[in-house]
Amino acid sequence: MKAEPGEFLSMLTDDEIEALRAAGRPRRWDRGATVMSEGDTSDWVLVLTEGRVKVSSHTSGGTEVVLAVRGAGGLLGDMSSIDGSPRSATVTALEPISGIVVRDFPGFLQEHGRIAVLLMRMVTDRLRDSDRKRIEYGAFDTTGRVATRLIELAERYGEKTNSGVRVALPLSQDELAGWTGASREAVSKALRTLRDRGLIETGRRRVVIHDLEGLRKRAR
């Protein structure tokens, strides 16, 4: 079972992964399916084994805000499972996905103390990432925020090619706008600016980064 670097499953040993499999059951969703809904009171967790999802919430005005993109190995729904509160975000399949559904996740953690400690470390990383994004929103312009998100996608999902780093972008421009806290028009303008500088090339749901270091400089 291959997991993306830094995701929950990548931190577990083979024996721990097998224990997780034994505690849950496999399930699949089609692209576009709603996996979890904000406000629901269900308490199961999902460990992704294939595909990517977006984690999002909506403002009072109905605007979607994308909080994260999770890939293979990602853990979803852990907060509600542990504290019993309603779901804090909606999870949507960006492509066909597979995963392991675990019903009694707190019970599983009680039996596997090392995994509980790893989960605490992962939650801490998420909080740090959330803090970094809040700083970005206040300090960076839209082009800088778009560049930062493209770098994140390249580092996690990029494939090296002769022309640069290719990212099969799972997000539409509307979703990318929700991930950068900007309007679709502003994101479209930012992408055009990055293209004009020769830093990237865009196509349907894909981006080729020709100059990753130049993109990092623009992000800063």
TrEMBL record:
Sorted UniProt keywords: DNA-binding, Transcription, Transcription regulation
Q: Which SUPFAM superfamilies match?
A: cAMP-binding domain-like, Winged helix' DNA-binding domain
Q: Which residues form the HTH crp-type domain?
A: 140-213
Q: Enumerate the spans annotated as Cyclic nucleotide-binding domain.
A: 8-129
Superkingdom: Bacteria
Report the Pfam families cross-referenced here.
cNMP_binding (PF00027), HTH_Crp_2 (PF13545)
The protein, known as:
Crp/Fnr family transcriptional regulator
